[in-house]
Amino acid sequence: MPRIPAVSKKDAGPIVRALYWFARRRFGAVPEPFAVTAHHPKLMVAGGKHEMAVEKASKTLPANVRELAVYRVAQVLGCSWCVDFGAMLQRLEGLDLERLKHIDAYAEHPAYTAEERLAIAYADAMTGDQVTVTDAQVAELTATFGEKGVIELTYHIGLENMRARVNSALGIVDQGFSTGDACRIPTP
What we know:
- The protein has 188 residues and is an all-alpha fold.
- It folds into two domains: 9-57, no CATH class; 63-169, AhpD-like, CATH 1.20.1290.
- It is built from seven helices and no strands.
- The protein has helices spanning 14-27, 32-37, 41-57, 63-77, 80-92, 114-127, 135-169.
- The radius of gyration is 17 Å and the shape is elongated.
């Protein structure tokens, strides 16, 4: 149970109820971070617009690279909600969820490509108590993904750092999206 309870549908105003309808239609359930943020409707709307804009703009990196880097941040920071939701997103992209069990050994494990290893290592370098990104690391990422790709990857890793830290601070935990318990979105 989150530290601040979610706003129930019956306690929500008309804008929040409309946003709940949209979220339920899209994800099969209202994501709990969304429902907790509903205590501040203007921030909820701003966050929703931002998430949709980021999703629409993110077309440079391959989905597997982006989603693995984001998943790694969630895993490192221990945000069970983000891990749950991230696994669902990977499933919907048709990605192999079995290999997530080996993400701690990504540097050597054959389930990961060279590009994925670079992105996961970058996520690690951006996610600790202090950022440890090096010039050489960014140069290698730029050679692999181009400048636009590095900006996109950096943005997604930074955004997931924010999401995971907010969710963890508010006590928001997994909701069953990865198993389909909360989510009725069909597998492609």
